[in-house]
């Protein structure tokens, strides 16, 4: 099943790769946000498992709270590189092979429009893929390239890149080794994204994990909270209700999270906020900068 899903993902991404970037239509989008990470960012709010005896048979309940309703001023960048009116589930043509539900994106965008109606049209670029670990998001990998290409394409229609919203980590709580390397990998990821998108002062709003299935949650959480990069803001998921599956935050939690993300973003836009450039990752021998070699060198276990 897993290899099959990867095949879908790869063929899909390959198709995106050959899409004609120059054909992205000029849009009225003024504010562009990247949404990336794993399932909680993709959205599983309202996804219910009807399966019995360990069987998985999931459906989305279709419940869309008022805070997540569509709005003509909120668009999303589709898998086919088109700006379309956004609606839940925001990641349904991106996070393929899963049952997607409510994520934080619509609540985030509605909340921003409510608090700052003059900000203009919001365009979201969904890129999150459920079940992914941070190593899979490393520069040069399929997920990373997909995110960068989609963002670059989205920007061709006009508009300003405003922030990267990031919610990930659960998949790195399973082994001590991954948990220990999490901070380094996360920091490197953020630096690379800002460098590759030529946006050294781009705000990054991340969500720290509150609980997890894996045993090394505390290490990952500490890594997230301890990340010392300018312009990285952290919203804490602590206290947000987790659903019956013990794995994903609920629809109502996603509504709250979207609002917290909006607060954090708007704080970076006040006149008092100072956005400093993030220094790119430096490496003397660019070829050996590959994540594989990096991890190998850093990992005491390999
Ligand atoms: C999955 O659950 C739905 C809702 O309970 C049910 O209608 C459907 O028959 C189930 N499908 C399978 C394959 O069990
Ligand atoms: C990350 O996920 C991939 C694919 O599932 C797996 O092959 C790899 O071992 C994982 N890496 C880490 C460091 O957990
Ligand atoms: C989703 O977020 C909740 C709250 O932090 C966390 O407990 C859970 O492990 C996360 N699940 C996944 C799959 O990332």
UniProtKB/TrEMBL annotation:
GO terms for molecular function: hydrolase activity. The keyword Signal applies. This is Sialate O-acetylesterase domain-containing protein. Residues 30-267 form the Sialate O-acetylesterase domain. SUPFAM superfamilies: SGNH hydrolase (SSF52266). Residues 1-18 form the signal peptide. It comes from the Eukaryota. Keywords: Hydrolase, Signal.
